[in-house]
Each structure stands twice: as C-alpha cells, then as structure tokens.
Design goal:
The complex is a heterodimer.
Chain A: H1 3-13, E1 18-24, E2 27-32, H2 37-46, E3 54-62, E4 71-79, E5 84-92, E6 98-100, H3 109-120, E7 123-125, H4 158-172
Chain B: H1 2-11, E1 17-21, E2 33-39, E3 42-49, H2 57-61, H3 70-74, H4 81-96, H5 102-131, H6 135-155, E4 164-165, E5 168-169, H7 175-199, H8 203-209, H9 217-223, H10 227-231, H11 239-242, H12 263-286, H13 305-310, H14 312-323, E6 331-339, E7 342-350, E8 356-362, H15 364-370, H16 372-376, H17 381-391, H18 395-399
Helix pairs in contact in B: 4-5, 5-6, 5-12, 5-17, 6-7, 7-12
The chains are: A alpha/beta, B alpha+beta.
Chain lengths: 177, 400
Amino acid sequence: MEALQIAEKIKEKFPEETLDIREFRGQVSVTLKKGRILDICRYLHDDPDLFLDYLVDVCGCDYLGKKDVRFEVVYHLYSIRHRHAIRLKAEVPDSDPSIDSVMPVWVGANWHERECYDLFGIVFEGHPDLRRILLPEDWEGYPLRKDYPVKGPEKEWPGFLEVLDKAKRYREFEWHG
Amino acid sequence: MDKEMEEIEKTFETKELTVSLGPQHPATHGVLRLVLDLDGETVVKCTPYVGYLHRGVEKLGENRTYFAALPLSDRLDYISSMNNNVGYVNAVEKLFGIEAPERARYIRTMVAEMGRISSHIIWLGTHVLDIGATTPFLHAMAQRERLLDLFEELCGARLTVSYPRVGGVRNDISQEFLDALYQFVLEFPSHMDDYETLVTENRIWKDRTVGIGVISAEEAINWGLTGGTLRGSGVDYDVRKYFPYDAYDKVDFEVPVGRNGDCYDRYLVRVGEMRQANRIMKQCIENLPAGPVMADAPKLTLPPKDLVLKDMEHLIHQFILITKGPTIPEGEVYVGTEVPKGELGFYFVSDGTGKPYRMRVRAPSFVHASVLPRLSEGGLIADVIANIGTIDIVLGECDR
C-alpha cells in the first residue's frame, strides 16, 4: 500500500486525532495528537491490510521556539509482509511532557522509550522500567533539549568528581611491601 | 536425589547470587555491564547497563554542517566504519535530493562489502574465541588485516575511513587497488572453507550453540531485531533487497536465512553473508563503470580540491559550504541501510540551514542489546556469553 493511502486510512479511522499529513522525498509523516497514540498503534499493528509489525525507531525531537507544541515523539513503522512504511509524529507539550508507552504493541519500544526519556525528559506512561539508560541515574537535565548547552552543564557531574578524587588518592598511595 | 537436595538445602544456606558481568569483561565485546541474578548456574534475571561510551553523537551532529558530521558516523560502529559512512551519505543525499554517479555507487557497494567482511570476520573470531576456540580467531584476523591494508591503500586510513562523501566518494580508485582486491576476492572462499572446517561441524561448537538463545520469527520482529540476528529466525528482511541503495539492485546476491532462530543458525547466516559479500565484490569489480565519482551539484557537494586551488568559483563554493553549509529545503527523511550488525538508520530533520536540526541514529546494536534478557533468562550463565556473541553488538554504536 502507498504511504499516502495508509495516512488516509488513519485519518478516516481517527479523524479527531489526525492533525496533518505531509510528504517529503516520497516519505509520508502523519502528525497526531498524543491522547490515543496507543489505540492508533494497536490498529496499525493489528489491521491485516496494514500490518505494521516492525517498529523501526522511536525518538524525540525538540522544536523549542519553532512550533507551538514543543516536543514531538516520532515513530517509524514498517511492514515486513507488505513492504510499506509510515512515520507517525505525536505532539507532546512542554507543560505535560508525557505520552502513553507503545510497549504493549511492540516490545522493542522498551529501550527506545527509555532513551527518549533519558535525553528529552518525556515520560512514557505505562512503561514498566522507565529509568535513565545512557546517562547516570543522578544526571541533571536532558541533553538533547535545545536549551541544554552543547559543552555540557556548568556544574560537573558528582560521579566524575568522585573518580578524580579517587585517582588523586591512589597517586598518593605508597606501597610498603 | 531430591531427598539429597533437600538435605543439602537444610544443612547449607542457599540463596540467589548477584554477579556483575563487565564492564571490563573481555567476553562482553566492549563496555557492556550485565547484572545477573543466579540460582546456581541458572540465570534468573539479567539486567544490561549500557552508556559507558556515550559521547552525544546526536547532539554533536546538530551543531555541525552535514559534511562535518560525517566523521562522527565512523565512530559509531568502529569496526565497520565504511558501512556507517555509506549509510550516512545515503541519508544526506536523500535529504539533499541528489544522486551519486554510477561509478561512485559501485565503488561504495564494493567498499561496503569489504567492511561487511571485515566486521563479520571479527565477529566470527571473537564469538568463537568466547566459546573456547582460539584457532579460528588467529586465522580470521590475518584476513581482516589484508582488508585493512586495502582500506589504507584506498584512502589512507585503516579504521575510521570517512571515504564516502555526500554525492560520491572522496577519490577514484587505482588499478593497483582493484588488482589487489581481486586477488583477495579470488582467495577468500578458500579461507572461508578453512574457518568452516574448523567450526561448522565441530562437536563442541554445536553443543554450545544449537538450541541456545532461541527466538521465534514473530517475536524477533516484535523486538525490532534486524540483520543476521533477525534472519537467523527465518525472516528474509534485508535492507539491501527491500530498499536497494547504491548498486545493490544491479548485483546478484542471495540473502541467507536460518530456520530455528538459535545461535547456530545465526552463525550459519553470517557465514553465508560473508560468501555473498565476496560475490558482490567480485561483480562490482568486474562491472565497474567508467565516469566521475562525484555528483555534479556544486551548491550541495564539496568541489574537488585541485579546482578549489585554481578556480575562483569553486573556492567560493567551498568556502560557503564549509562555513555555512548548504541551503536545503525544510523536511525530514529517514534512510536505513544494511550494516553488518543490522539496520542502521539516520533520521534527519532539516530546518533549511546548513546544519541538521535533529540527527537521530537508529543503531542496531542498541536494539540487539535490549533483547539480551529475553535470550538469557532461564538459561545457563555460560550461555549468556554465547548470546552476547551471537547478537553481534558493538558498544560504540549502542551508546552513541
């Protein structure tokens, strides 16, 4: 099925939720409201004509100052049986950065969502194990947000200071064998 | 027997043991840490910890021009950097709306397959080494060395090559390089026979891999597995066949698939892939067309260096492209390519400036590492090592 047809089907089935359909370089993205994202994903996964069984990727995107709604969670879906693809984008506002987890549909969303939480601070509701994944547990801030400085935070991460301190103490250590 | 066990449990206090495997364990193929809850030798719970190599590639990419972010892709999967470069430039070309000329596409296909062999060969060596066979590792590394020497002759670098460019490749290839590569291509199948003689029907190897880490086709797709890890379960999903890029639609090759979805089938799939990669390289060398190696798009690709030194117009283009970056339309693309580990995808959001507004790397190793608990829980601790080897992860790509 052509990607635009899939987009039309989503719009037909969920007219309230679909905000925008856009095509660029032959790839189609559907912008959605975040409220019923799990229902939409379940429909796309279970419908025999669509059967988007392979969740390629989940990632966030921060449109600080560019769009009215700050965050977007982007899902890339693909059907290995029918060989068609679609991109979903769910709008997530800054005031309430949370969205339903799609883990009940695709287990593979697990780490992608954890990473998105880690780097953007978007909370995935219903995720069984939402912890930071790439950064340490006590890291402050969300690095991939646009207002996060590229060179890193002013304050050093306490874990790193600990390592420096330890290294210094080991240098001073004298071995009396 | 049960009575004896009861007696033992009464006499001695038994409890679950928590073991931290890694991050500096040689069998974890990098800095992967697994916390294993053990009941005797059985793994009850496996929790992977990643992120030790996190360098913020996505954030760095957002602050460089499309040309300057290319070397970042080398450092993702550092044992097959050529394939990452090919994936990166394909995604950027799609975003720019340009196409590399025919010759450059053939060259990229050829060097990508060289990268595939050099990556699979290191996978074969280390996977077998983890399980206890030292000899294949030594034989495999000898052939990898030849490929790295060829890379050096091609572009001057052995590991982080940055040879493909947006719109083509950096330089044309020489006849000496082609001759040396052809020699390698002719000899390689006999080396493959050597490895297979050592491993494929080996009793110990089969005992350690057959029926270990089994995952069904539906489950593998649901987990988002790709590459050899998915094809071992019997799904023929290969980006090179499903979305042909470069010259993959013009060469003839097969996609090996397994049946049982265990470690042994994944081994067979990757070994088959190496033979197919050799076939692709042979066809590319034999059918290499003549012509330029860079696309004719002066406002979107870097001009050749000799013209920059002589010609005013090219100098201006070079200056603008390096300092400001190209001007491209607003939009977003996702392009996946088949790297040795699986599907490597780049997702670019462009806001019309010379730098990507968002650069997302969909790394296969990241997804494959997440499936480790599913493969390992309920098995023996020794099989955890087999499972780490079979999913073929590189932590530089996993952590980005």
